[in-house]
Design a protein that fits this description.
The structure is a single chain. This protein is of the alpha/beta class. The chain is built from 14 helices and 17 strands. The strands form three sheets. It has an eight-stranded mixed beta sheet with strand order 3-2-9-8-4-7-5-6, with helices on both faces. α2 packs across α3 and α11 crosses α12. The termini are close together.
C-alpha cells in the first residue's frame, strides 16, 4: 500500500467509515440542532456518558478508576484526543495511584528501549530516536510527549503492545504459513478471531480499500487475520503487563481497536475473564452509538497536513485553524481562517475528501489543486504532483 503527501490516516477502522457521515460544531458555539444525539451541546474535550449526558473529568476518572483495563480510543492525528488521554491518565494517577501504560504505537521488539526509559537510563529526548518513531509509527511523537513526561514524573511503567510493524505486510503477502519460525514466534500462538458483528464491519472496510475484492475468500481471510493478530497481540501484552506491573493498565490505541468492545476488549475477556474493562471513545459529532463505549469525549474532526496547516471540520466546512510559518502551506499563501472548499474538484464536506483528492491526482498524474475561500473570495492553489512513499 502507498501513502500520499496529504494522506488521511485516521485512528482505527471506524474512522475510515465515520468520516463520510461527519458534521461538527464550530468550536464551542451553542448552536441548536433539531435532532439532538446527546442531552447537551459539548465543547471540545468534554466527556459524555453512554446515555448521552454530560460528565465532568472527575466523574469520568471516577467511573474508570475501578477497572483493571482502561482502553482509550484515538484518532492518531487528533491533538484533542491526545490531550484527553493525558488528562485521563493524570486523573487516574492522582494521589500517588499507579497504572501501567500500554502503547499500540510501539512494537514489542522495542520493549528494551522502554525498559531503559522506565529505569531512568534513557532520557525522554532520546526516546524518539531509539524507538525509531519516525519510521515505525510515523505520527508526531509530540502528541505523546506529555504522556511520557507524566510517566517519568510519576514513575509509571510504559510498555509496547504491538507486534513488529513489518510483519503486517509479511502476513498480508504470505499468511502465517509463509513466515519464518523466528517471525512466527513474535505473534500469538492462538489467534482470537473477531466476533461475528466485527467480521461484518471489517468486510465493509475491506470493500472500501482500492484493489480489494470482498468476494475473494483468501483476501478476506488475510484481512481478518491481520486485524485479529493485531488485537490479540495487544490484548496478550496488556494482560502480561498487568501481571508484571501489578497495577491497572491503560491501553492507548486507535479507535477501531476499542469501539463496541470488538477488538482488544473481546480478546481481554477471553484471556483475563475476571478483569473489569472500561472503554473511552472519541465522538466526532456524528451519529451517537451508546454501545460503542462506556464513556465518550467530544473532539471535532481535525487533521494536521504535512503542508504545515491544521484543518478542522466546522459546520461541514474544512477550516484552516493553524498554519506553521516555516512550512509550505504558509509559503504558498494559506492562512488561518481560510476554508478549503474543493480539493481536485471534489467538494470538501469531510476530511475523507482529501484522501479521495490525493488518490485522484495520483491516478491522473496531475497536480493537486485546492480551491480556497477567504471571506467569500475564492482562489486556487496548485500544489504540484504528489510525492509518493512506500508504506511498511
Amino acid at each position: 500500500m502507498f501513502q500520499y503527501i496529504i494522506d488521511i490516516r485516521a485512528g482505527g477502522l471506524r474512522a475510515l467509515c465515520a468520516l463520510f457521515f461527519i458534521f461538527a460544531m464550530s468550536g464551542c458555539s451553542k448552536q441548536i440542532h433539531s435532532d439532538m444525539a446527546v442531552s447537551f451541546l459539548p465543547c471540545s474535550g468534554e466527556f459524555i456518558s453512554s446515555a448521552g449526558d454530560q460528565l465532568s473529568l472527575v466523574d469520568a476518572v471516577h467511573n474508570a478508576s475501578s477497572a483493571d483495563y482502561v482502553l482509550i480510543g484515538e484518532g492518531h492525528t487528533s491533538l484533542c484526543d491526545h490531550e484527553v488521554q493525558f488528562k485521563l491518565i493524570q486523573g487516574l494517577t492522582s494521589n500517588h495511584r499507579k497504572v501501567a501504560i500500554g502503547f499500540e504505537m510501539v512494537s514489542s521488539d522495542k520493549q528494551d528501549v522502554l525498559n531503559r526509559f522506565n529505569l531512568g537510563q534513557l532520557s525522554l529526548n532520546d526516546l524518539p530516536e531509539k524507538l525509531d518513531w519516525k519510521n515505525e509509527w510515523r505520527y508526531d511523537f509530540n502528541f505523546f510527549r506529555p504522556i511520557f513526561e507524566l510517566a517519568k514524573e510519576r514513575e509509571l511503567t510504559v510498555a509496547a503492545l504491538n507486534f513488529p510493524f513489518r510483519l503486517m505486510k509479511e502476513v498480508h503477502a504470505k499468511g502465517l504459513e509463509g513466515l519464518s519460525a523466528a517471525d512466527r514466534a513474535l505473534l500469538p500462538k492462538n489467534v482470537i478471531m473477531p466476533p461475528k458483528q466485527q467480521e461484518e464491519s471489517l468486510k465493509e472496510v475491506l470493500s472500501m480499500h482500492p484493489n480489494s475484492d470482498p468476494s475473494d475468500s483468501k483476501q478476506v481471510h488475510r484481512f481478518l487475520l491481520i486485524q485479529s493478530l493485531w488485537d490479540t497481540t495487544m490484548a496478550e501484552r496488556a494482560v502480561s503487563l498487568r501481571r508484571r506491573a501489578g497495577t491497572p493498565v491503560v491501553v492507548l490505541a486507535g479507535a477501531g481497536h476499542v469501539e463496541q468492545g470488538w477488538g482488544i476488549a473481546h480478546r481481554l475477556k477471553e484471556l483475563d475473564p475476571e478483569a473489569k474493562i472500561f472503554m473511552f471513545m472519541p465522538w466526532r459529532g456524528d451519529n451517537f452509538y451508546p454501545a460503542e463505549a462506556d464513556s465518550f469525549f467530544y473532539c471535532p474532526p481535525s487533521y494536521e497536513s504535512r503542508l504545515g496547516m491544521t484543518l478542522e471540520m466546522r459546520q461541514g466546512k474544512a477550516v484552516v485553524v493553524a498554519v506553521k510559518r516555516d512550512q509550505k502551506a504558509f509559503r504558498i499563501g494559506i492562512r488561518p481562517g481560510d476554508v478549503l472548499a474543493e480539493a481536485q474538484g471534489i467538494p470538501v464536506h469531510s476530511l475523507s475528501a482529501l484522501h479521495m483528492a490525493g488518490a485522484k491526482a495520483h491516478k491522473e498524474n496531475k497536480p493537486l489543486v485546492f480551491k480556497m475561500d477567504r471571506r467569500g473570495n475564492t482562489f486556487s492553489i496548485d500544489l504540484g504532483l504528489l510525492v509518493r512513499s512506500k508504506k511498511d
